[in-house]
């Protein structure tokens, strides 16, 4: 670009405060050398969604939303300006072959974990189907995995009606012997959003289910402390799966399956903060954000904020 004062590439911000670093500036593309800290992997797939979903666009928008935050935490009086978030990029889906796409997700995440043994990946969906691939890769790389799933839904649907979808990831993992039911803890399950046969399936398979009433009565922090205590002696790592529709529709307009009576954004933020302080937590995904349904990128922005909270307490 020729050097003319005040003439900048269109992609540059129009205003730059010299005293402030934007969180988006922490993203550095992976250079092939084993990375440490938090790493982003995009899993842009939503053709597997039961409802119409543009969640495949979320990794791009969530990364962009990191630019709407600074790197300074007033609560911790800590500036993350010198921290690196390694960006592994997005996994390329096959255009029509969903099985092939899911295999690619397993392969790529597994290879990233192999070549970066100390990385804490944050996998950006995509719809919730991507968790089946991602957790499978974790199991292959790290051994038995415990899961803490924030969700309004069980995601234990049968595989006969529609094959592997965003309604089936945890059923697939249990039936494929990738996880045990007793190592799955679901938080935020809501009324009139599930079927009785799936709540029964959860009971029969030893899955721990904390409904919204329990979240409201006991508080997220207490449930998570209990969950981590239960899991950590039984598995070699804990994986956190955040389906953003666990939030009340008021906080997450950009999810396909929104509804009332869900968690507040603050409850989810505090939950993620607590989990990021637990050394057994080795990875997280954020799924079900559809930027095409969102209002002013509220849901993507909250997803980006969760990444920063995770980073804050991990670095
Ligand atoms: N992960 C989401 N699962 C929900 C919503 C599915 C949808 O409507 O797209 C479920 O199975 O009910
Ligand atoms: Mn859900
Ligand atoms: Mn889900």
Percent range of helical residues = 25-40%
Mean pLDDT: 97
Instruction: Could you tell me the CATH topology label.
Output: Arginase, Chain A
Number of domains: 1
Computed Rg:
19 Å
How does CATH name the architecture?
3-Layer(aba) Sandwich
Name of the CATH homologous superfamily? Ureohydrolase domain
Number of helices: 9
In spatial order, strands of the major sheet run 1-5-2-6-11-10-7-8-9
Number of strands: 11
Unique bound compounds: N-(iminomethyl)-L-glutamic acid, manganese (II) ion
Poorly predicted runs are: none
Which structural class fits the helix and strand makeup?
A: alpha/beta
Shape: globular
Cα(first) to Cα(last) distance is 36 Å
Main pleated-sheet profile: 9 strands, parallel
Q: State the order of secondary-structure elements, H for helix, E for strand.
A: EEHEEEHEHEHEHEHHEHEH
Share in β-strands: 15-25%
Q: Using the coordinates above, name the CATH class.
A: Alpha Beta
């Amino acid at each position: 670009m020729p050097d003319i004062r005040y003439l900048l590439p269109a992609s540059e911000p129009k205003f730059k405060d010299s005293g402030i670093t934007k969180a988006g500036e922490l993203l550095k593309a992976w250079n092939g050398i084993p990375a440490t800290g938090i790493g982003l992997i995009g899993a842009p797939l939503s053709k597997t969604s039961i409802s119409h979903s543009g969640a495949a666009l979320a990794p791009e928008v969530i990364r962009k939303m990191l630019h709407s935050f600074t790197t300074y935490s007033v609560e911790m009086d800590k500036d993350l300006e010198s921290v690196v978030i390694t960006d592994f990029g997005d996994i390329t889906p096959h255009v029509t072959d969903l099985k092939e796409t899911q295999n690619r997700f397993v392969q790529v995440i597994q290879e990233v974990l192999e070549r970066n043994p100390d990385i804490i990946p944050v996998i950006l969906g995509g719809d919730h189907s991507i968790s089946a691939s991602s957790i499978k890769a974790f199991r292959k790389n790290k051994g038995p995995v415990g899961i803490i799933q924030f969700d309004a839904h069980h995601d234990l649907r049968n595989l006969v009606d529609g094959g592997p979808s965003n309604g089936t990831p945890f059923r697939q993992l249990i039936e494929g012997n990738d996880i045990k039911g007793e190592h799955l803890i679901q938080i935020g399950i809501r009324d009139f959003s599930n079927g009785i046969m799936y709540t029964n399936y959860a009971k029969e398979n030893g899955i721990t289910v904390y409904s919204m009433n329990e979240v409201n009565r006991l508080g997220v922090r207490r449930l998570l402390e209990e969950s981590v205590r239960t899991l950590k002696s039984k598995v070699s790592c804990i994986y956190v799966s955040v389906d953003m529709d666990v939030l009340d529709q008021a906080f997450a307009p950009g999810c396909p399956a929104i509804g009332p009576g869900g968690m507040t954004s603050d409850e989810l933020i505090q939950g993620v903060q607590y989990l990021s302080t637990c050394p057994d937590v080795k990875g997280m995904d954020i799924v079900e954000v559809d930027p095409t349904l969102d209002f002013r990128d509220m849901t993507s922005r909250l997803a980006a904020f969760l990444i920063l909270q995770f980073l804050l307490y991990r670095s």
